[in-house]
């Protein structure tokens, strides 16, 4: 039977197991958005099951994490979280003084606002980060997102913009985001056979999760936002990616995890409307900010995998680093027994 080198061809593309399915899903979602509803059943589930696949991915990934890696997760996740939010705060302060709350009304930057910039900078695409680190990193690198997940939602954007009042951050949502990983860690640490069994599923799920993630991207958003949306997406990758790269290297990484976090989360597109509902002064900015942030989601979802693959190729992948702080040192090999003296009588 004729063999077609599908896997080998996909892997020729940098980060191919992530990028190719993601782009395929995005193209189908853009050209034939009703495909999931038309076919329904299992086919529809492949397009809409990103959260379910991610939940299973999280459990299996957690099973392969040793409890000894917890300090590493706190250090890595906390550092990337602080840098990403720090860049959002800097951007908010700078552009807040330059243009204020209202969007720019004329010129090539018409529609750009402080709200759009901060919302795009503040929130990392967790699914994209975990899928990329599942390919290039180690389970502990994926687990670092449990700390970075604090970026999700409008709370930190409100803090950055200085909005008065309290923003709800339900503890159930926070616990629910971490629970699958914790359950996986418990199972994997209680039973090494379960760890081996579940860990094998991690690379298999990456293309399926990537396809479902891509199916949620509408490439027309980039067209609607025009060059301004494209430029803002590129700015997110570069402006946050460079500090994140060096922060990752300072915590013992190769820079790959930092670049993988230089994206905009899908739920960030909903933040401008929530901010405007909390403070009407941002009502005008929210209209164009929503489109710009949605464009950033698409642009960064396409650029970050390529940038991550390039970083891994040039600076090395975290998967190639030793787990010095996450695993017990290997026991010294027993000394070889001296060979018995050869018989002289033969």
How would you describe this protein?
- The protein is mainly α and about 350 residues long.
- It has one domain: Na+/H+ antiporter like fold (Up-down Bundle), CATH 1.20.1530.20.
- About 70% of the residues lie in helices and about 0% in strands.
- It is built from 18 helices and no strands.
- The protein is globular.
The description of the largest β-sheet is: none
Q: Would you identify the CATH architecture? A: Up-down Bundle
Strand content bin: under 5%
Say how many strands there are: 0
List the uncertain runs.
Answer: 163-170, 325-346
How many structural domains?
1
| SSE class | mainly alpha
Shape: globular
Q: Whole-number average pLDDT?
A: 78
State Rg: 23 Å
CATH class division: Mainly Alpha
Region (Disordered): 325-346
Membrane topology: Multi-pass membrane protein
Function: Catalyzes the proton-dependent uptake of 2-keto-3-deoxygluconate (KDG) into the cell.
Main location: membrane
Could you list some keywords that capture this structure?
346 residues; mainly alpha; Na+/H+ antiporter like fold; 18 helices; sugar transport; transmembrane; cell membrane; symport; transmembrane helix
How would you summarize what this structure contains?
The protein is mainly α. The protein is built from 18 helices and no strands.
Question: Could you outline the blueprint of secondary structure elements for this entry?
Answer:
Blueprint: H1 6-12, H2 16-31, H3 35-39, H4 41-48, H5 50-63, H6 70-99, H7 114-122, H8 126-136, H9 139-143, H10 145-148, H11 155-161, H12 171-190, H13 192-199, H14 202-214, H15 220-250, H16 256-260, H17 271-278, H18 283-315
